[in-house]
Amino acid sequence: VDQLDEKLAELDAEREELHKYQQLDKQRRGIEYALHDKELTETRKKLEEIETKRAEASKSVGQCQDEAKEAEERIREIQEEIRTVKASLKEGSSSLSNQKAKTQQLLESKTKASMDLKDAEDRIKSETTSRSAAEQELQGLQTEIEHKEAELKELKAQLAQKESLEQKLENELSECNSRQQFLFGKQGQNFSSKSEKDKWVKAKISEAQQAAKKDSKVLMRINAEMEQVNRQLQDAEEEMLRTSASASDQSAEVPALEQQLKDFKSKAGTLNNRRKELWRDETALDSKCAQLRDELDKKERQLHGAVNFDTNMGLKNVKRIVDENKIAGVHGPLIELIQCDPKLHRAVEVAAGNRLFNYVVDSEEVAATILKHMKGLKNKSGRITIMPLANLSSQEMRYPTEFGKDAIPMLKKIEFDATIKPAVQQIFGKVMICRDLEVASQVARSSQFDSITLDGDRVDTRGPITGGYHDDRYSKMDAMKAIKGLIEQLGKSRADRQNIAEELVALDQEITQCLSNQKQLEARLQHARANADTWRADERAHKKFVSNQKKQLETMSKEAADCQRRMEEQEARAAKLQAELGEELQSHLSAEEEAELTDLNSRVLRLKERLVQAQGAKAQSELAAQELDDLLTGNLHPRQQELQELVDKAAAGTDQRAVQQLREEAAEAESAFKEAKEIEGGLEAEAAELKQKSQELKKELERLKASKESLEEGAREQERQLDSLLSRRTQLAQRRDDVSKRIRELGSLPADAFEVYKGKPAKELHKLLKKVSEDLKQFSHVNKKALEQYVTFTEQREDLLKRQRELQNAEGKIKELVYALDVRKDEAIERTFKGVAKHFREIFSELAPGGRGELVMQKRLPSDANRENEPPHSHREETESQEKYSGVKVRVSFGMGDVQTMQQLSGGQKTMVALTLIFAIQRCDPAPFYLFDEIDAALDSQYRTTVARMLEKQVEDGRNPAQFIVTTFHPQLVQVSEKIYGVSHSNRISRVDVITRDDALAFLASEEVQRTAARQEEALVEQFEEGEEAFLGAPMEVDT
């Protein structure tokens, strides 16, 4: 300050001369200001022009880059479309090949069905012709049968008349023969008496009666048989009627069954067509799912390629662990849980970075479960960051509002579920999306929020600005959006595929049921037709049986009539003989009897002749009737039945139904072939369309590539122009800055200085400047900065005085703070020392039973006794407070009565003291774990045991548990260890393996034996060497 006062006095003397100089200098600076202002105005104008050109060029570059980017994006889309078209074309070629094979197969089926139909129609045509011929033949045969039956009926009537005539003649002949025989017998009988005659008559009567009785029995038997035959005939006729009705019923059931069978076949065909459609849809969906799956795998590989290997492995392992163990409360990676406008993807990725792959879970327990499983993985588990929602804050943020729509909180532009809001807020809560870098810089400076532009340029609150080029081809958010879209499409396709599969299962069941019903109906139809045929056969058998029975009954009727006639003849004979009983015996015939006998002889002859004629005529009639009957039963009736069956079969329409079925099959084959042909045509058209589309896409791709190259070349040309403009702008800006600097160097000017020289041209200003400069040369010896120095030094003096006052005030505050801190430090030291000393005494007595130890604080006496009487406001210096304590002294006794210092202790005792101090500090300020390297190497066995117990006790301490990792070669610590590792060395490779306590103790025992043997061997070597030295050093006596 004193120096400044002296300098100010000197400068005051130079101010008068300086005033004149300042007047000229002010004029010079005014002129220079006018010149510089003109140059600055011209430079700024040029800068504005260049800035305008640069803005236009930058805009053009941006447009070219945007168009090139759009072209590149379109190229990727077209390349993807080309890949899709190629896959579709490949799939379509395979489908077309399969469809052609199917069409060929259907063509063969159609041809076979047409040929079968033609054969059947030819067969039906032939059968129709045969049926017409059969009907005509049957009609003629029926007429012939009617004529033959009429003729047979007439023959039977004539035969009956002839049989009646024969019977009549036989009866007359029998009566005549009987009378003739009687007369002959009477004429030739020579009875001696009447009684002898009566006896002979009675014998004849008895013979006649016996014959009549025999014929009566035969007649009774024949009548009984006829009654039985009549009953059988009646039953047969009833059975024939029932059989005919059953055959009619069965025949009537066949058309209904055939119609039902036709309906079921039609339904089965409809269901089969629907199933074929579903099969095609299923195949198309399988192909689509495979294509989506490939695309999804590609996008997932792209996403996984955007992160490092460890994070990728971590994501895969966590997903596998969660799926295998069914862990609840896991939401997934953050990138899968959020979405936003594609325009914000770059900003979101820049804001979050790799935190997009943080795993969001509900609580710490879920996170611990996942990490526990990951630790158990044998292979590399990877790296993962887990965000428990329960531990994250969800406090609402207060965002700046003064920037309006130019700065928007990123959190408000991200869509997510409310349950994961803490996780999203943790990462995006302090980020603002800004319109441009200028706004981002303002937001970062004026608030505690990081700012990011849509282009990915970031301004942190700490000041750094990061950004640059971002390749959108490797965008994580774009890849995740595509993955979500593909997953949604894949899920929909799989759902459709599942629906089709379920519908196919239902269709298969329905088709199976329909086919089962069809088989049942076919069996019923076959059974009905077989029953109808069986009933018709039974009907024919019953008709034949009835006809045979009628013939048998007719024969039996004739036999009964013959028997009845013979019986009546015998009865008449017996009656005549009975009339002769009691008549008188005559030796010769009377005249009447002679005449009667003569008449009987001639009559018998005539009757025999007539009988022979009648029998001949009867035989001829019987032969003719038999021939007609044989013709009817053996030829005409079987032929009629055969023709009738043929006509009935044709009328039943069995072959027609078969032909109709073949027609339907042929129609189905034709329809299937047409449908297959249409599908084939559609596939060919689709393949042609895909090929055309592929060619068009390739042309479009080439065009876009050429357009992209042209745009990139245009952008590069614009960038070269922009660089040239930027270089020119830099030069002009440097020139502007230089002019502005020169203007600033001119200092302050009066308000009218610029107005005086404003309108003058530059040439005149240069002349004026030259004249003023010549005038200023007269004042070259003047201290040009006297006034400024005077003012500056005056301001400096005021500043120094102000700073002196401030420093004096600060010194007092600092000394008060130092004193307060010294007091707190001393209190903390004493408090800590007391705790450590207390634990030291307790632990030493545990480690060395019977011993005692203590810590003693060493203090220094103050160098100036008067300082003790100074009050607190005297602010003792820091060095004085630091000299209050000089150190800590250890005093221990190991049960021998004398207290020893550290310098008096052995190595093992010093180790015990060090361990005691460590354990004492651990109890005051616990640590989670301790690493000891052979702390028991210098200890005796008893102290190793106490140290081991102390470690075991400390591990199990409920208040301050700790973990100890110890290396040792002694069994005491091994006995109390929970897990033991053995370190081995082989072939320059060290291995660490978990071993059991018994193996460790056995190893230590063997090591102890080896060490003992080594020590003994060393002792023997030392003794031998000492003896050898004694021998070599002793005088030798030689006996010569």
Structure explained in plain terms:
By secondary structure, the protein is an alpha+beta fold. The protein has a domain at 810-925: Rossmann fold, CATH 3.40.50.300. Helix content is 75%, strand content 7%. It has 20 helices and 16 strands. It has helices at residues 2-13, 15-188, 194-305, 309-325, 334-337, 345-352, 364-375, 421-428, 437-446, 476-580, 591-652, 654-745, 753-756, 762-776, 786-847, 878-882, 907-924, 941-955, 971-975, 997-1033, and strands at 330-333, 338-340, 359-361, 386-388, 407-409, 414-416, 431-434, 450-453, 458-459, 465-466, 852-859, 885-893, 929-933, 963-967, 980-986, 989-995. The radius of gyration is 70 Å and the shape is elongated. Keywords: Coiled coil.
What is the general shape?
A: elongated
**What is the name of the CATH superfamily of the domain at 810-925?**
P-loop containing nucleotide triphosphate hydrolases
Oligomeric status: single chain
pLDDT averaged residue by residue: 77
- The low-pLDDT segments are 864-882, 1028-1040
The name CATH uses for the topology of the domain at 810-925 is Rossmann fold
% residues in beta strands: 5-15%
The name of the CATH architecture of the domain at 810-925 is 3-Layer(aba) Sandwich
Percent helix, as a range, is over 70%
* Strand line-up across the major sheet: 5-7-8-9-10
Largest sheet at a glance?
Answer: 5 strands, mixed
Total helical elements: 20
Radius of gyration: 70 Å
Question: What's the β-strand tally?
Answer: 16
CATH class group of the domain at 810-925? Alpha Beta
What's the N-to-C terminus distance? 111 Å
The helix/strand class is: alpha+beta
GO molecular function, one term: ATP hydrolysis activity
GO biological process, one term: chromosome organization
Biased composition (Basic and acidic residues): 109-128, 862-883
Region (Disordered): 53-72, 88-138, 862-884
